[in-house]
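User: I'm preparing a small set of examples for a lab meeting where we compare how different chains pack in three dimensions. I only have the primary sequence for this one, and I'd like the structure in token form so I can line it up with the others. Please keep the answer compact; I'll paste it straight into my notes.
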Amino acid sequence: MSTTEEFITPREPLVVRVEGTAHERGVQYGSAAKERVLLSLENYARVYAKFADLTWDEATALARTFVPAIEDFDPRYLQEMEGIAEGAGVTFDDVLALNLRTEILFSGKARKLAAAAVVPGECTAFCDLRGPEPVVGQNWDWIPFSHQTVVVLEAIPERGPRWVSVVEAGLLAKFGMNAAGVTVLTNALVSSLDVGTPGMPYHLLLRGLLEAESAEAAEQVLRAAPRSSSANYLIVGDGTAVDAEARPGTARDISWLPVRQGEYLVHANHFISDDSAFPTTATDHGPRVMPDTLFRRERAQALAELMPRPSVAGWHEVLSDHENFPDALCCHPNPKEHELEQGSTVASAVIEPARHLMHLVLGHPCSVPRVTYDYGPFFAGN
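Assistant: Understood. Below is the structure token output for the 382-residue chain.
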């Protein structure tokens, strides 16, 4: 097995552009990212065993129980996962289990281990509307092996807007933006309400948001689909923004936090909505299972207050901050922790939605050069 140091050595960015039917796009994706998909499977087998006490066969059987909910939402997602499996030379169940990593990690069986387990913090996201145009973005922190499995996925679907997502190989989406002006940032959340009830999985809902024709349509995606997991969705479009703290359930189980012009919002891996919106019988487990979440949000807010005006450089500096190292905004593996409990900033993005610009670091933003992707021409069909 590779060492942590090898896992965090930056690889050449893998940019995969796909088009055609859902199945065709899946085959193209799986073929281009085959090596990384296989590495994802190898490591998630270890992750599910450690955090959920599940064999791979047990994890895929659990994932199968979500198929009816996915089919009701959009059967093309199943067709695309079948294509990914074909392209990568693995089974559909393998790809399905990758896409349900959140639901498997916080399944009913996994909750029995929750008292002893601490999972790496996942993300610190922000939206800044204090300037003439929005500046948004996030750090995605996860287990160090993900440095070797990240993909920039660019899609030309049969219908709907073109979109781009920074994602783990084999997954349908994570954070990104589309040609209709919708940008989606995200944070994993976990509460006592997360009991593994089948519904629409977290990462597939992110895909639904990226396919939306407007920010309002993206909000309707969240309202329409019964959700399995808690998660935070920061939706930006047409110069406006709203943060949706979603609990498992339906439309009534979402707390909406608008971000108004002249304001900014920072979100990490715990609920921040008013207590009245959170059920009194529920418990937010984020600060316990991801204990650095409170610090990351407070630190990012403090640094944002010192920023004279919102800018790409200013937010890049925030996301590169090392206060509380190694469990900092720019997260580095802690050698005192178990390999699979270590966190590391896998990707860091500052996005200018109005200009279709994604300033992306694949790796630690403190040291890896930032690359600017201009998606204006791609979104325009060029």
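A couple of notes for your slides: The CA atoms of residues 56 and 260 lie 45 Å apart. The chain is about 35% helix and 25% strand.

User: Perfect, thanks.
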